[in-house]
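Deliverable D2.4 — example input (C-alpha cells):
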C-alpha cells in the first residue's frame, strides 16, 4: 500500500552520499523532530531527474527552509556511489541530502516502487515528493507515469 498522509515514515537504513564519502543514515534519525521534504526519482542521471527534478529542489531549497523545512532530501534506487557521482555532476552542496536506497527496501516499504525490469532498469522509485513532520507524513504527491507536475519543488512550496 502506498504511504499516505498520517502514516509514519518506515524505519530503514539508507546510504547518504556526502563530500567525505558514504554515510549510513537511519530514517528514524533523519526524520526525528524535523520537517523534511523527501523527493524520490526513478534514477540518477536520468533526463527529467537531472534537468528538472533535482535542480528545482536545489534552486528552491532556501525558500523551502524559509517555510520551516529543516531538511530537503533526494532518494533514488541507486547505489551510494552513483548518488555521489550525481551529487558531484550536479554541483550539489549542503542544500539537498542525497540518499541511496540501493536494494529498494525503503521504497518498497513506502509502497512507491515501480518495476521497470522489462525495460532493463529493474525496480525503481516512482517520482514523488512528500513532507513529513517528526516522521509523520503531512503531504504526499505521486506522479502519474511519465508526468512531472505534483512532485516538483514549486508544487511542494505551494503545499506548505
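Example output (designed residues):
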Amino acid at each position: 500500500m502506498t504511504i499516505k498522509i498520517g502514516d509514519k515514515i518506515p524505519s530503514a537504513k539508507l546510504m547518504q552520499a556526502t563530500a567525505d564519502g558514504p554515510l549510513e543514515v537511519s530514517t528514524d534519525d533523519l526524520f526525528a523532530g524535523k520537517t523534511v521534504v523527501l523527493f524520490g526519482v526513478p534514477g540518477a542521471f536520468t533526463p527529467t531527474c537531472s534537468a528538472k527534478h533535482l535542480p528545482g529542489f536545489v534552486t528552491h531549497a532556501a525558500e523551502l527552509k524559509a517555510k520551516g523545512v529543516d531538511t530537503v532530501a533526494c532518494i533514488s534506487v541507486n547505489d551510494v556511489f552513483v548518488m555521489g557521482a550525481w551529487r558531484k555532476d550536479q554541483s550539489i552542496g549542503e542544500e539537498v541530502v542525497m540518499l541511496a536506497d540501493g536494494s529498494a527496501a525503503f521504497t518498497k516499504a513506502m509502497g512507491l516502487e515501480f518495476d521497470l525490469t522489462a525495460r532493463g532498469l529493474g525496480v525503481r522509485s516512482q517520482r514523488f515528493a512528500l513532507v513529513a513532520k517528526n516522521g509523520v507524513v503531512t503531504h504526499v504527491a505521486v506522479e502519474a507515469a511519465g508526468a512531472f507536475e505534483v512532485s516538483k519543488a514549486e508544487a511542494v512550496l505551494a503545499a506548505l
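The chain has a mean pLDDT of 93.
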